[in-house]
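User: tokens in, sequence out, please.
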């Protein structure tokens, strides 16, 4: 008897994730009014959200508690995005996404959700630490380990794409590495999910001289250094290949220690993303040789034309695994 018959692959009950499900308001009566969560400690502050650790009194464990900053907690658009992040993350039950425990309102009526608390480092922190030490991340982690991390991220994307979800904000700050070797793809708040009509995004001014590391400005949905050309254009036809481009941009930075298009002005970055081809990683490397096959995978991901890229996260996983096997064989 085959193993497949003994242990059939589980089939999800929802083949596609729908906008009408992810952005639905919670019923008014849903709120946490008791003292279930106590002993709050700040973990991280983002542009829109606060993440804290806290004690879950009901289950006697420490969890992560995420909420909107009070300045935007009553903004209807930000509330929709927050609900989407919680639900998309909860629906994409995969080893490389973080488990969600509860979505509710606090005693002031503001949304929050709780999730597994993972003590670890983001890829952004690893890259920044290497820069401070005058090295590159691959010097400490090695090509093999870095590629293994990106394979796990691409596995999460392959799963999400199979459910009609495009992440739209792949970047080092959203890749978390835990203490047991786990790799988690975070922050699905900008995710594009299936809908019969285009998503409505409020008109807001684009601050062209602002910090390009900021997420979601005006109609711009993403982080400039890692956005695909079609994402910069705001194309309604944007699909999963945009995430493949972003994965290539992350791989590029991992190999070189710098982003595809360095700069500190948003308009400059956006122009380059749309119109300029970056130098190959080997042209920038000074401390080590970039593996040729890995460089080729990277450059194929960041082609301007989506049709010329690696066509799916699954194909990217296959290409990276192929390189990893060859690298292991060649280096012993």
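Assistant: Sequence out:
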């Amino acid at each position: 008897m085959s193993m497949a018959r003994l242990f059939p692959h589980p089939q999800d009950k929802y083949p596609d994730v729908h906008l009408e499900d992810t952005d639905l308001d919670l019923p008014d009566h849903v709120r946490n009014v008791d003292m279930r969560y106590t002993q709050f400690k700040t973990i991280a502050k983002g542009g829109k959200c606060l993440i804290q650790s806290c004690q879950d009194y009901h289950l006697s464990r420490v969890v992560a508690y995420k909420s909107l900053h009070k300045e935007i907690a009553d903004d209807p658009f930000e509330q929709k995005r927050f609900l989407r992040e919680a639900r998309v993350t909860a629906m994409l039950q995969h080893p490389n996404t973080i488990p969600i425990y509860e979505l509710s309102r606090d005693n002031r009526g503001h949304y929050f959700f709780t999730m597994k608390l993972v003590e670890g480092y983001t890829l952004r922190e690893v890259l920044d630490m290497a820069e401070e030490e005058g090295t590159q991340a691959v010097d400490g982690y090695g090509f093999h380990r870095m590629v293994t991390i990106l394979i796990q991220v691409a596995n999460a994307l392959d799963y999400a794409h199979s459910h009609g979800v495009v992440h739209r904000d792949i970047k080092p700050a959203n890749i978390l590495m835990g203490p047991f070797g786990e790799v988690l793809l975070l922050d699905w708040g900008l995710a594009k999910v299936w809908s019969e009509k285009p998503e409505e995004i409020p008109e807001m001014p684009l601050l062209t001289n602002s910090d390009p590391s900021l997420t979601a400005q005006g109609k711009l949905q993403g982080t400039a250094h890692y956005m695909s050309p079609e994402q910069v254009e705001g194309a309604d036809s944007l699909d999963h290949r945009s995430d493949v481009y972003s994965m290539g941009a992350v791989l590029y930075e991992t190999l070189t220690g710098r982003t595809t298009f360095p700069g500190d002005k948003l308009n400059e970055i956006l122009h380059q993303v749309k119109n300029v081809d970056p130098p190959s990683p080997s042209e920038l490397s000074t401390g080590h040789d970039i593996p040729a096959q890995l460089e080729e995978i990277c450059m194929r991901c960041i082609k301007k034309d989506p049709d010329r890229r690696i066509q799916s996260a699954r194909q990217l996983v296959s290409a990276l695994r192929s390189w990893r096997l060859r690298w292991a064989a060649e280096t012993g």
